[in-house]
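Re: weekly structure request thread

Next one in the queue (255 aa):
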Amino acid sequence: MKSKHVDHLWEQFQKTHEDHFRNLLMEHYDHLVKTTAKRLHRKLPDNVELDDLISAGNFGLMDAINTYDSNRSVKFETYGPPRIKGSILDELRKLDWLPRLARKRASQLIKVRQSLIARFGRKPTAKETAVELNMDMVEYKRLKRDANVARLLSLNTKYTNNYSEETICKADITMDKKSQNPVNVAEKRDLRNLITKGLTSSEKLILTLYYYEGMSMKEIGLTLGLSESRICQLHSSILERLKAQMNKCEKEFVF
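Done, posted below.
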């Protein structure tokens, strides 16, 4: 777009403040948004989308156009980018769940620990670190807690495979320590079905309540309406039968 035409757009917009002229100016200065967004995007984690930065930058561009005075000696190419960058940074702060103070405190702890490691030639103790920070242990533990929070990673963080163009998320390679291995679950289920084959429903229930639910003989007796001694007798009888049954079906086990 020629310079004279851009000057005309500025003149018309600042006279009328019509959306039509503002939108034409935004199209003309669109490259300022993309350049600023790309520059910031290179310094951010992979889970931050470039399109989101551009979208936030467009609001900054709109604000810059609305507040710019073409009669000043400052060119819009100089006036606009700081506004665009500020708008993008504001959006990033909204997306950041960790308070800025927590990040600052975490950074402070890391620097002090690195300094003490260099001085002592070993990892410093909690007390040594607290003394260096001029903190009591209560305040130090609070600082350490904040630092641990700052190290948390988003499960949407992306990693690139060096041997292919495939990208994977943190969630794909993070083990859930609370979950059970499905293979182990299946093996235990098959083993239980095998060794309880031929038992009555009541006998299976006694084994399940005792070995899987952790109930005592007395509790099982109350549940089934039998005495504790009777449950003990049944339990012993079941075990004897299972031992004999396992000896017969030993060949079914594969090691």
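Residues 100-120 form the longest helix (21 residues). Residues 195 and 243 are 9 Å apart (CA to CA).
Next request, please.
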